[in-house]
Amino acid sequence: MSEGRRGLLAVARVSATLGVIGFGGPAAHVAMLRVEVVERRRWLTDAEFLELFAATGALPGPGSTQMVIAVGRRRAGWAGLAVAGTCFIAPSTATVLVLAWLYVRYGHLPAVGGLLYGVKPVVVAVIVVSLWGLGRGVVATGALPAAVSVAAAAGFLAGVDPLVVLGAGAAVVTVWRNRGSVRARGAAVVAPALALAAAGRGGRARPGATATVHVGLWPVAREFAKLGVIVFGSGYVLLAFLQRDLVHQLHWLGARQLLDAVAAGQVTPGPVFATATFVGYLVSGVPGALVATIAIFLPSFVMVAALIPLLSKVRRSSWASGALDGAGAVAVGLMAGVAVTLARSGLVGPLAVAVGVVALVVLARFRVNTAWMVLAGGVVGVLHSL
């Protein structure tokens, strides 16, 4: 087998595994990806990983999906880009499609609380281990990026919009580094971030709206392609856009159905943007689910394909390089904030704490495949629920 084919198969294996075990949202996906490609396989250094993390974090769309796509491009070229993204998205799409079918047939989502009880502590441990490695990379770039990381974590926990935090962090670092040549261009970075954050806030849902309508495939494709291009932040920011568009403006869904669709995306592994699959099924059946999924993820493939060749040029600009370092520092801080949030909801009870501590020790001392750790946590959670 050729070296290129082996590299492509390895990319497919890593991405598909992450798509199957990737519970916990974007921060958890990135942490698991780092364990695989930096620690276990050494495809990238921490500095290279952090650079990709910062660059994809500045793009709209599903951040962890774009990170997987970017790693696939780095490792196996253009074929790796396509294979990585597809293998990461496919397991979540299939799972959410099954949940959507069950939801339409029985009127509710299956219970998965027992599984998540054991998985969440493992996810927290994975993020903590990755934060240790990425945090050292941020500290190595200077005291200011390290302070920006801490401030970003504090801002996230205080409820500040992540997009505002991202813009502010990038502006602070790049303005400080270029203070000798040009003064105070930070507003040019922060203002667009504030505008985008404000655009993501929709009104409240009408309490009486519960019925879906049948929608043609072209309107579904147009709506979700638009969301794939304009939604910054994460899958949680997607909720605001979906509420504004689908509940208030288009009246495709009721408020309760939208919450159930978002819940389906959150309780399944893989990208939270797979919520689109659920919504597409509700309004147009299986064809709608497939069209919505392709439409919301396709822009990410295009944007990452355009971004990766530009990174070397970006690094040659002192302003762009400073902004990238600032964005990377913010991304690490946001991961820390997410870890705290998950710990609050996941480390409930002595058993969950014990699972988290054991997972942390094992991951810190040995290069264990995260799939086995997530599987073990899931088994513990299911046994506990029984």
Structure description:
The chain has 386 residues and is mainly α. Helices cover 79% and strands 0% of the residues. It is built from 16 helices and no strands. Helix 5 (113-140) packs antiparallel against helix 14 and helix 5 (113-140) packs antiparallel against helix 16. Mean pLDDT is 79; it is low at 183-211.
Question: How is this structure best summarized?
Answer:
By secondary structure, the chain is mainly α. The chain is built from 16 helices and no strands.
Please describe the biggest sheet, giving its number of strands, its sense, and whether it closes into a barrel: none
List the quaternary state of the chains.
Answer: single chain
Along the chain, the helix and strand elements come as HHHHHHHHHHHHHHHH
The percent of residues in helical segments reads: over 70%
The number of distinct helices, counting runs of at least 4 residues, comes to: 16
Beta-strand residue fraction: under 5%
Backbone structural class? mainly alpha
Instruction: Sum up the overall morphology in one term.
Output: globular
Number of strands: 0
N-to-C terminal Cα separation, in Å?
46 Å
How much is the radius of gyration in Å?
20 Å
Q: Give the overall average pLDDT.
A: 79
Q: Outline the low-pLDDT stretches.
A: 183-211
